[in-house]
Amino acid sequence: MATYAIGDVQGCYDELRQLLDLLNFNEQDHLWFAGDLVNRGRQSLDVLRFIKGLGSQAKCVLGNHDLHLLALHFGATRDKRNQTLQPILNAPDRVELMEWLRQQPMLVSDTSLGYVMTHAGIPHIWSLEKAKKYAQEVEQVLRGKEATEFFRHMYGNKPDIWSKNIDGWARLRLITNYFTRMRFISTSGRLEFSGNGTPESAPPGFYPWYQVSRDQPLEKRQLFGHWAALMGNVNNSAVIALDTGCVWGNKLTAMRLDDHVFFQQDCSAYQIHQA
């Protein structure tokens, strides 16, 4: 039995199945997915159906593209650029898939394996205990009767720095942005949303989030996706970047958590639909 963590699939179903063949994946194994299961790739519906069908063999954290799909499903936003998501919204099992998706967590942690996973990372200003608490705040709303209202307030870049005094929808929006959109951050914890390139492209006063010294050690290694431009290179033994740009024609990456061995599947370049 082995546990593998897999980077952003983004609708690349064929490549995911090829990667699992490379792993000799079987019913005894478990998979962790770093979020962004859908969008941009052309087989998002197949990806959702397959991972949902794995049941307890799969753990997923929600990424920004997954949340965008849920917002469309709940009618909280409109976006005409969603050609790759429309098959899901037209599917006969749409409601079942969306109910499953909104039950997925923002954060997964395993003490025995020694890993914690979120889509974009955990900011240096939060301890693991606080990160778990804040993740649960968002999860509770996502799974409840206020989900539609949450999605109506989810989009936006403000507030962009944490304060315990922030409350309401602004608080939930900021927590969501730290977990699903973070790349560059200031030493005070302010987020910067315009940059998505290499670490060297950080705007003045900002740094890749994983390069900033933590206020408290997490005591677990972090797994994250979201940042394809890193191509897995972070030069930090405490964090592992899993998004290696499959949908952009690069690779889909898996890491076996039991012994830190990497596996990669070459990917075909898709006709990308921005969202």
TrEMBL record:
It comes from the Bacteria. Gene3D superfamilies: 3.60.21.10. InterPro entries: ApaH, Calcineurin-like_PHP, Metallo-depent_PP-like. Its EC number is 3.6.1.41. Keywords: Hydrolase. One of its GO terms (molecular function) is bis(5'-nucleosyl)-tetraphosphatase (symmetrical) activity. It catalyses: P(1),P(4)-bis(5'-adenosyl) tetraphosphate + H2O = 2 ADP + 2 H(+). Residues 4-153 form the Calcineurin-like phosphoesterase domain. It holds the Pfam family Metallophos. Hydrolyzes diadenosine 5',5'''-P1,P4-tetraphosphate to yield ADP. Belongs to the Ap4A hydrolase family. This is Bis(5'-nucleosyl)-tetraphosphatase, symmetrical. It comes from Nitrincola tibetensis. The gene is apaH.
